[in-house]
Specification:
Number of domains: 3
Strand content: 15-25%
CATH architecture of the largest domain: 3-Layer(aba) Sandwich
Helix content: 40-55%
Number of helices: 13
CATH class of the largest domain: Alpha Beta
Shape: globular
Number of strands: 12
Distance between the termini: 71 Å
Radius of gyration: 24 Å
Largest sheet: 7 strands, mixed
Length: 435
């Protein structure tokens, strides 16, 4: 009875000749009908409320970019008529510390909300998704990559973007297929050193890189971890130097990634190629902080704006162009950042592809069932990905067609996509890595 979604002033236009008492009785009856028929969980009349939990205070800029991408997706869907006429309304909740995950999800559930989108950081997304599952919500990840997020068998947790396994596997695969011939070696003759931060995010990337390298018969000559909050590089550099690697793979965050590269140069540690296997090395901050010292470094991560549009279907290309226009209008930047593109893609998939498939049933089970039914080929989403969620317990809810690419810094503050070929905007250079 959504046709009853009108206000008392609208009703009284048709009964203005009636008495004040009679008008009040009719308006009360309409309000009661709305309460009984129009207030399904997570909804007010004509709306679908979606919880949004992000660390906008503690992780500021990058988390904000991801959230803005989600907001743009919701706005586009709403401007096109919403979901079966219902507007998407984002209900924001600050999530700045792991201890807040439980209270945030309980508050959303208490408000009658059935789905939460978050949370940028793996350290926050892991407890947030657990809390969402315990409280009967669907959890929809917009950016975090740690494998553990979709590795616990939760049937209500989904991630559209790449996992740590995607990024680490891509690094080793790129080393074997692209770097080995440029170093004039067979993959089996390559020596690989892996350095990683001790947290769930970097550890999942490193493990995947090691696994893929060994599967391609490359020698993993050393693996070294460090504390990302207080990195001490001398023993790390000594371990890498002793291993004599051809290729170094680093799984880090932005500050420690920059610090590692500076320490590597100060220690005169030279390798044939250096691959950063996380967001640290492909973001503009890395190039801005290091300047010419970034040139030649590779980065394995999710796509950001500016990749080859040939990777997109015609519909996805049109959608990407709309995102780029909206992003430029809001920020002045010509292309969306990695975080903005990830947030938009996750939000768009939920609002445009999943919710309409529920046939008007917006409970958690119906949303999860609709998500699992999606089967979109590569190039269908605006970041170049396809979509098919894994159904095995070890990867349940992970998009098996997530997009990941290899970037390379080729000039001061200038990077290009070099692999896979469908995404590439430039060719591989600076192998071996300049001293």
């Amino acid at each position: 009875m959504w046709h009853l979604a009108l206000n008392c002033h609208h009703v009284t236009r048709y009964i203005d000749t009636m008495s004040t008492t009679l008008r009040a009785i009719i308006c009360a009856a309409v309000a009661a009908a709305l309460t009984l028929t129009g207030s399904a969980p997570g909804r007010a009349a004509g709306t679908i409320r979606v919880g949004a939990a992000f660390p906008l205070m503690t992780m500021g800029g990058l988390a904000r970019q991801e959230y803005t991408g989600i907001e743009i997706a919701a706005d586009m869907v709403n401007r096109a008529g919403g979901v079966a006429g219902n507007r998407i309304v984002l209900v924001a909740r600050p999530l700045n510390q792991t201890a807040e995950a439980g209270p945030v999800m309980r508050s959303l559930r208490a408000a009658g909300i059935n789905i939460a989108i978050g949370a940028y950081s793996s350290a926050l997304s892991i407890p947030a998704s657990s809390a969402a599952a315990r409280n009967g919500l669907v959890y929809w990840e917009a950016g975090a990559v740690a494998d553990r997020l979709t590795g616990r068998g939760y049937s209500s947790v989904f991630r559209v973007g790449a996992s740590g396994t995607n990024l680490g596997t891509n690094s080793a695969r790129f080393a074997a297929t692209q770097l080995a011939p440029r170093l004039h070696k067979r993959p089996a003759a390559l020596r690989i050193s892996v350095v990683y931060a001790r947290d769930a995010y970097a550890r999942s990337v490193a493990r995947a890189a090691i696994r893929e390298a060994r599967s391609r018969h490359m020698t993993v000559s050393s693996t070294t971890s460090y504390n990302p909050y207080a990195p001490y590089w001398p023993p790390v550099m000594a371990a890498v130097r002793k291993a004599h690697p051809d290729i170094l793979i680093l799984a880090s965050h932005i500050p420690d990634g920059v610090s590692f590269r500076k320490a590597m140069l100060a220690d005169h540690l030279h390798v044939g190629a250096f691959i950063g296997s996380t967001m640290a090395e492909c973001g503009p901050e890395f190039g801005a902080m290091l300047g010419p010292k970034a040139i030649g470094v590779f980065a394995s991560d999710r796509p950001m704006g500016g990749f080859n549009p040939g990777a997109l279907s015609p519909a996805a290309r049109t959608l990407y162009d709309r995102l780029a226009a909206a992003w430029k209008k809001q920020t002045g930047q010509p292309q969306p950042t990695e975080e903005a593109l990830a947030g938009f893609t996750a939000g768009w998939t939920l609002f445009h592809d999943v919710l309409p498939r529920t046939q008007g049933h917006y409970g958690a089970r119906s949303i999860a069932r609709a998500a699992r039914s999606l089967n979109l080929p590569n190039g269908s989403l605006p970041n170049g990905a396809g979509l098919k969620f894994a159904t095995d317990r070890a990867h349940l809810g992970q998009n098996t067609r997530a997009a990941a690419v290899i970037w390379q810094w080729q000039a001061v503050r200038h990077s290009v996509v070099v692999w896979p070929a469908t995404f590439a905007t430039g060719r591989i250079r600076f192998v071996p890595l300049p001293s």
